User: What shape does this take?
Amino acid sequence: MERSFSPIRSVLVANRGEIAARIFRTCRRLGIRTVAVYSDADASAHHVSQADAAVRIGPPAARDSYLDMDAILLAARAEAVDAIHPGYGFLSENADFARRCGEAGFVFIGPSADIVRRMGSKIEAKRIAETAGVPTVPGYHGDDQSPETLRAAASSIGYPVLIKASAGGGGRGMRRVDGPAGFDAALKDAQAEAHAAFGDSSVLIEKLVQNPRHIEVQLFGDRRGNLVHLFERDCSVQRNNQKLLEETPAPHLDDAVREALYEASLRLGRAIGYDSAGTVEFIMDAHEQAPYFLEMNTRLQVEHPVTELVTGLDLVEWQIIAASGGALPLAQDEIRSRGHAIEARITAERADLGFQPATGTFLRIVPPAGTRFDAGVVTGSVVGPHYDSLLAKVIAHGSDRAGAVERLATAIESTSLLGLPTIQPFLIDALRHPVFTAGSATTGFIAQAFEGGWTPDQESVALLRAVAAYLSLAPERDARAEGSNPWHRPTGYRVMGAAHPASIAVDVADEYGTAAVEVRVSRGSVWAIVDGVEIDLGTVSLLERSHVGERPFDHSRGEDGIAVASNGLSIVAHPRLRIEAAGDASAEHDVGSGNVIVAPLPGVVTAIFVEPGQPVSKGDAVAQMEAMKLVHTLTAQADGVVAAIHASAGATVVSGAAILDITSGELREVA
Ligand code: ADP
Ligand code: ADP
Ligand code: MG
Assistant: This one.
């Protein structure tokens, strides 16, 4: 087992976003030279700016860049690096990649290729766990993949069951089945998805655990036979089987169960000679305190920072030490967990639309003060449709759980991400929900806590609209002329100088809808009326950070609107003066009448289902788009005739681009 120690002096990170930037940070501290790789979509991405050198590896599509092993190995050779860190996702759990790195003479910063291969199969991992005496979720993980065998297995396990892709990851390739009638169709779906996403259609079947809590143990091994655990994390708050909030220690976990989890994880690690950072995932019925092994992730986990905050250790540093053949810096009894840590993942998604991915450009980013913020984006970053929606993580520590949770909520509130929608406001509501603060969340938390779906606080949205309407009345030049001329000083800005009382009507459209705002000015005071509610805007100035009363907000003007954010909620508003045309009050609202089918997101048009002149009925699919890995079908919402088609299949379109016109009908989107 013992290997020679060969220090790592340069590292290429085969990844992007926050994790690439995170790994570079540790490398810099350790005096290790860093090399970034990037696709054409990431030429000016944040992670590229954080490395000593950067190499282009291909076009935007991940399979042609971040998943292209040849391109990455070529880059590593060109920069003559010692080692390659795969981050998470992409090639991090690809055994071929680990092997090829070694063959090409690069240290793979992760476990040996053989361990990656064995644990990459959920089927084999469960068999290894069983052999090691680790309880696994009751189910079928045999070689016989015939539909008859699988169907019979599901019946003997007892419904409801979960069909899972053996090679699956990132919450994909899973199907819940509630009874025998639905089994065959679900199996076909799961196999097809597994084949398409992972190139391997084998599945396993598991009993669906009720009231599931996701609890995992951080393991760490080196190549000298040392193996320790770094305690557990609770990652029960999930959407689409993917984590959003992660914390340590797990709340309401019996000490005996906690110890048993550590023991089981160490047994599993020893059984395979685990030699790097890895996570053993368990699922547990909240009422039963009996965890079952789910899978092992042979990589650094997205949520590793919570473990770092309670232990004071740098897990990337440990990975580098282990990969270079060194010994883990601490023994088990020297590793302590102090206080409580919790992380929230901020993604570019619409929590109000079932977590549909969003794209756009960040006009301005105000990071939280005094809290760890691992971000892959900065002011000016473009969030496109090609990669995962994770933007940044906020991680807070407290002496106890309540303190850590509230510190995190406050930190997210103080963060302003201007330019595109993120799940920030949802995360704040989730953190302050009584079920979460009580430590009682299961993986069903979001559905239970936000019945009918989460929506942003309407008063907060109204306030942002009022501010946007007011700012839209300021001459744009003023904001840039700060200080140069007393008349243009942003803090002195008042609509029309307010010499006479005035009232201005502004229509504001944003991602959450539209509102009619009335801005009223009279000597010395400014206020807005939105949805019948008066909002005092007397303290608002043109500064990027300003206040409505005591409440701070940030704003930024883009080509496409005014972004305004406050307490973690942000909108991109499109304010328009409402000028009533005499005799025809509706004339200027043409675009809103629904004759135009527009792209709801930036992406690629994948199909146009209709031709000019073709009659369509309400509900007919007229076009299809792909954006952020999801397919969106655009349908007509009323009967009509296709008048014109503006985009063809294959075209890349911006959000709001007209795709086709229907003589009468309205856009509706079906995910
Ligand atoms: P963690 O358990 O570390 O929180 P997640 O399951 O949330 O990890 O996945 C981390 C990232 O890696 C996500 O961006 C996810 O989409 C991606 N990912 C995880 N497993 C795979 C896989 N097998 N193939 C492709 N992407 C994956
Ligand atoms: P992935 O490789 O995609 O991370 P996992 O097997 O780790 O797949 O499962 C991801 C999530 O799916 C879990 O955290 C849990 O929320 C849910 N899940 C998985 N297996 C079960 C099960 N048997 N019963 C209930 N929920 C499950
Ligand atoms: Mg998992």
About this structure: Residues 21 and 358 are 22 Å apart (CA to CA). Residues 281, 295 surround magnesium ion (ligand 3) (CB under 6 Å).
